[in-house]
Q: What sequence folds into this?
């Protein structure tokens, strides 16, 4: 048995699979979130540990599975979060998360200090955007100098859970590539941004975790961790990685030609590449994959976090989204929403707020507002798809995340993109990816030669009954709605662009 742990923004999931990739147990526990009007988004790392324990306990209890049968585990974690520990290995302050936009001024300062986006891309292979880890460190030095002086270890969310599990301070290239103090071509730490931040000391250099390979084993569970989780101390812990990297594994997106789109708390779309992708605009992040290649990716900061808030404001539950899409027409009768409740990453608008256009007495209804919101977040991530493809063609998308559960939302994506939309048989793609990665690492540890490609081919399945095919009669209606969305976007934010810049 193999255990995947997925620590997201809203909660932590535990997924146990057998050697065929079949799910035998799963559990979930929610997280709290610290939100402030200035864009701060934070969580106490200890909440993740509590949620991990609760999720695994629930999975074992509800399935009746003996936790000592689990051979290996791996963690999938939300990317970019900054976890800083003191000399006792305890969190100094809450972790600033991927969707924290309070650090936008620090990101702008760092970009300017190294000559702008093009210079960053040429030097490090990636352009930092607000939300990446590097600007959080500069924010901490400038705003909480006492906390900054206490730093002894710098970790990402999945690294912190690995530390709690094993006592080891390590990370792997996939998640590390989202820090912006990592060279995505050479897969090594980039010290220059850290040297700029710390101004003459070696606090940050010395605080970095050890880099290991994505297929490596970190070590065995600590006795206290095994006892708290109901697992055996013989259980070993694999490297794990960022949630997008594990989602790629969980959807079989580990070779050229596949596209994964996530309709989660945030939106993401990515493909596998055998070589790093160069994008001097910074819109496409050429992260390292956790299978040896690269993962050109576009992220939007507004997705189900926005649709859920709008449904709540209308006094409706999550089911209203599908109902609204069924009862309205593409384009919402001219109603357009720029859904930037959390600022935005693509396009790079960290200080943006949401806007409504085209509202009048004939189209104003709760259903049209809901549709326009869903269309707004969808058009944003579909623009990201164009960026990731950069002129190349795709025939199908693999859709994951909470939004993928809605048949109507799936159909919207198919109709607006003109692509077939497939749904994995497992709804928990990041957790499944972590479990499959742990299987891969365990087999390698045993001296077996199974590849991650062979494992995903055997274990990743498509739920054919949920496949959505594009309907040609709706494509033109969505094209008009997308053009209207882009018109309002450029009128309100003239610097915003979604023109592909990669090569």
A:
């Amino acid at each position: 048995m193999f255990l995947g742990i997925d620590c997201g923004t809203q909660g932590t999931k535990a997924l146990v699979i057998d050697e065929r990739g079949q799910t035998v147990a799963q559990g979930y526990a929610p997280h709290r979130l610290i939100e402030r009007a200035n864009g701060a988004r934070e969580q106490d790392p200890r909440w993740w540990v509590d949620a991990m324990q609760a999720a695994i306990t629930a999975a074992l209890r509800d399935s009746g599975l003996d936790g000592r049968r689990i051979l290996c585990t791996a963690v999938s974690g939300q990317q970019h979060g900054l976890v800083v520990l003191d000399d006792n290995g305890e969190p100094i302050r809450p972790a600033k998360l991927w969707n924290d936009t309070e650090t936008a001024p620090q990101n702008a300062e760092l970009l300017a200090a190294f000559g702008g986006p093009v210079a960053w891309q040429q030097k490090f292979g990636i352009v930092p955007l607000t939300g990446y880890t590097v600007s959080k460190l500069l924010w901490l030095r400038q705003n909480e100098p006492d906390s900054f002086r206490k730093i002894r270890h710098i970790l990402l969310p999945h690294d912190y859970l690995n530390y709690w599990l094993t006592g080891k301070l390590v990370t792997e290239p996939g998640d590390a590539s989202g820090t912006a103090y990592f060279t995505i071509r050479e897969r090594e730490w980039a010290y220059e941004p850290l040297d700029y931040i710390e101004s003459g000391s070696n606090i940050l250099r010395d605080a970095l975790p050890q880099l290991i390979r994505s297929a490596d084993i970190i070590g065995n569970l600590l006795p206290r961790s095994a006892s708290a989780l109901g697992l055996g101390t013989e259980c070993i812990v694999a490297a794990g990685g960022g949630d997008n990297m594990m989602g790629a594994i969980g959807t079989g997106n580990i070779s050229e030609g596949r596209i994964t789109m996530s309709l989660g708390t945030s939106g993401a779309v990515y493909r596998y590449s055998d070589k790093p992708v160069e994008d001097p605009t910074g819109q496409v992040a050429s992260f390292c994959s956790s299978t040896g290649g690269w993962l050109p990716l576009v992220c939007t900061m507004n997705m189900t976090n926005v649709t859920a808030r709008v449904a709540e404001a209308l006094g409706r539950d999550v089911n209203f989204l599908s109902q609204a899409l069924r009862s309205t027409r593409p384009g919402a009768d001219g109603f357009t929403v720029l859904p930037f409740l959390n600022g935005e990453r693509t396009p790079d608008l960290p200080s943006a707020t949401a806007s409504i256009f085209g509202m009048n007495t004939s189209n104003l209804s709760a259903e049209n507002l809901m549709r326009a919101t869903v269309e707004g977040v969808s058009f944003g991530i579909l623009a990201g798809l164009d960026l990731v493809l950069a002129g190349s063609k795709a025939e199908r998308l693999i859709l994951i995340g909470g939004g993928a559960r809605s048949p109507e939302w799936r159909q919207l994506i198919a109709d607006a993109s003109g692509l077939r939309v497939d749904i994995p048989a497992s709804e928990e793609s990041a957790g499944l990816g972590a479990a499959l990665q742990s299987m891969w690492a365990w087999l390698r540890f045993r001296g077996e030669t199974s590849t991650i490609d062979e494992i995903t081919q055997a274990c990743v399945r498509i739920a054919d009954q949920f496949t959505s095919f594009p309907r040609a009669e709706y494509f033109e209606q969505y094209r008009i709605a997308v053009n209207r969305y882009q018109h309002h976007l450029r009128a309100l934010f003239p610097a915003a662009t979604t023109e592909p810049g990669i090569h």
